[in-house]
Amino acid sequence: MTPELLLAPELLPFLVGGVLLGIVVGAVPGLTATLAISLLLPLTYQLAPLPAIVMMTGIFTGGIYGGSIAAITLRIPGAPASAMTMLDGYAMAQRGKAGSAIALATFSSFVGGIFGGVVLVLFAPQLARVALTFQSPEMFALVVLALIAVATVSRESLPKSMTATVIGLMLATVGIDRLVPVPRYTFASVDLLVGVPLIPVVIGLFAVTELLHQSGESGEAVRPSEAQPGLGAGRLAALWSDARSVRIGVWVKSPIIGTLVGALPGAGAAMAAFLSYSEAKRSSAEPERFGSGVPEGIVAPEAANNAMTGGAFIPMLALGIPGDAVTAVILGGLVVHGITPGPQLFGEASELLAPLFGAYFWSYVLILVFGLALIPVFVRITRVPRGILFPVIGSLAIVAAFTSEGTTFAMYLTAGVGVLGFVLRRYGYPLIPVLLGLILGPMLESNLRRSLILSQGDATVFLRSPIAAGLLLAAAAFPLLMLRRRRIDS
Predict the structure, then answer these.
(1) Model pTM above 0.70
(2) Three-state DSSP class for 112?
(3) Mean pLDDT of the chain
(4) DSSP secondary-structure letter at 23?
């Protein structure tokens, strides 16, 4: 089988349908690619293996990209991985450049996705072996670096950013202890035994908080967007101009970061976007402009989280270990269809890889075409009057929270987190570190405790590993470098 087979009439509808479904689901706050594939999985039982693989791949890639649409137009990330895109993307939309922001997000998603795919095809077995060297001490150090980096590069003061990070980490400790089965900070609530659910927190922090914030302002929050051509010479020329304004280093480093993070089991798209955005801001000659609508603030996270998709396939295909939640579901789908990922896949069943790789690359071509062609449709969201848009967003937020968990508690939690986010934002505390703390908190705690258990309480285990020591040293240097730069700028 060859990748060209994907153009066959019987396969193309599955790929196109998967990509479009992924974009739509990813763009709706509270609905994720993981949810979409989970719902699709029973349907694939009736399909042949090839159409099922093609469709799941399209949903995966489309879902990661789709989260940027709501982040740019509504300041509500469709998925946690789009939270960093929201910062500069929505700022551009406020200046009437929503179409330019979406075009840049689309193109950088394409570049990152293709890069991740090339690395997947050429170096999957080798990178999988490297990923295995990341044990508990190394993963702990990587999470520390991500937390410190995002808190340090926030536009707000460092103490407030660190406080917000700690709030997120505190939320992550709620629920049944992962190593010792006892409840923690549940206040006798059965709903909190499983922990604080992520999707209601994302919706509350950004959707509800944004509604409360903008409701207190007068006038239009977003300037009417410029006239947006579809997929044509005018749009491509404007996109090329915006892309050229981004440093070449951002175009190079962001896909590399995303692919490497994706190859680490359990890391995921959110960490890739956070680290890439932080590095882009750290290395910028004008870091203070980030968050005000600079193109680099869109390119860095979007190139990284889409390159992550290629990286996430690496441990799944080469080792049978899913790189994130979505590939875990895809792994289940492959097994159902008699395909067992692992080292033998590249030898005994290598003919199965060609259609999967082909589906991956064609899906990003479709994302580029659909994303640019549908810009006029996406931009219309910014032109809807607030009196109509706000009730729709509020209703959608509550429904999405209920859908994600299936409980009324999720709706109350969304509202409560929204009020908390409004108070934090009112007093100058950033919200992104709260989200990052909640996402990475369980990974931080489990790897810390596992490392100390294996070393019998010897904390030097984090220094005996060169990788862990280097990551911790970088985490310590990050705030020092940013504070020094701020001192020089002032």
Answers:
(1) yes
(2) helix
(3) 82
(4) H
Question: What SS3 class is residue 148?
Answer: helix
SS (H, E, C) 218-264: CCCCCCCCCCCCCCCHHHHHHHHHHHHCCCHHHHHHHHHHHHHHHCC
Long-range contacts of the stretch 242-248 (C-beta < 8 A, 24+)? 242/100, 242/103, 242/104, 242/295, 243/104, 243/107, 243/108, 243/295, 243/299, 245/295, 246/295, 246/296, 246/299, 247/284, 247/296
Of the CA atoms within 13 Å of residue 40, those in its CB half-sphere come to 29
Domain ranges of the chain: 3-489
Residue located via tokens 């890739």: 272
| Cα separations in angstroms, 224 against 74, 87, 371, 378 | 13, 19, 20, 13
Judged by DSSP in three states, 175 sits in strand
Cβ neighbours, 10 Å, residue 27? 25
Structure tokens at 209: 């908080």
Confidence of residue 307 (pLDDT cuts 50, 70, 90): very high
**What is the arithmetic mean of pLDDT over 424-434?**
87
SS3 (DSSP) at 183:
strand
Sign of CA dihedral 418, 423, 425, 430: negative
Residue 281, SS3?
Answer: helix
The first and second tokens of residue 352, run together, are 């199965």
The structure tokens listed for 450 are 């596992």
Q: Which residues pair with 176 in a beta bridge?
A: 183
Identify the burial level of 46 via C-beta atoms within 10 angstroms of its C-beta, where 0-12 means exposed, 13-18 middle and 19 or more buried: exposed
Spatial distance between the Cα atoms of 151 and 460, rounded to a whole number of angstroms: 25
CA 29 vs. chain centroid, Å, equals 13
pLDDT of residue 3: 46
Question: Directed axis angle between helix 296-319 and helix 268-282, to 10°?
Answer: 140
| Single-letter residue type at 271 | M
Which backbone phi and psi does 151 adopt, to 5 degrees?
-65, -35
> Would you give the DSSP letter of residue 206?
I
